[in-house]
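Q: Given only this backbone (36 positions), what sequence would you predict?
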């Protein structure tokens, strides 16, 4: 019988985009971004 190669593995799913870092520059600043 002919030597048939196995099908290639499916490509990995695209990785989801990482969420933006919760760092918002505010007048108060500090951990947590502070308040407006």
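A: Predicted residues:
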């Amino acid at each position: 019988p002919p030597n048939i190669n196995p099908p290639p593995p499916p490509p990995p799913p695209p990785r989801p985009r990482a969420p933006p870092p919760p760092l918002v520059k505010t007048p108060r600043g500090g951990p947590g971004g502070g308040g407006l």
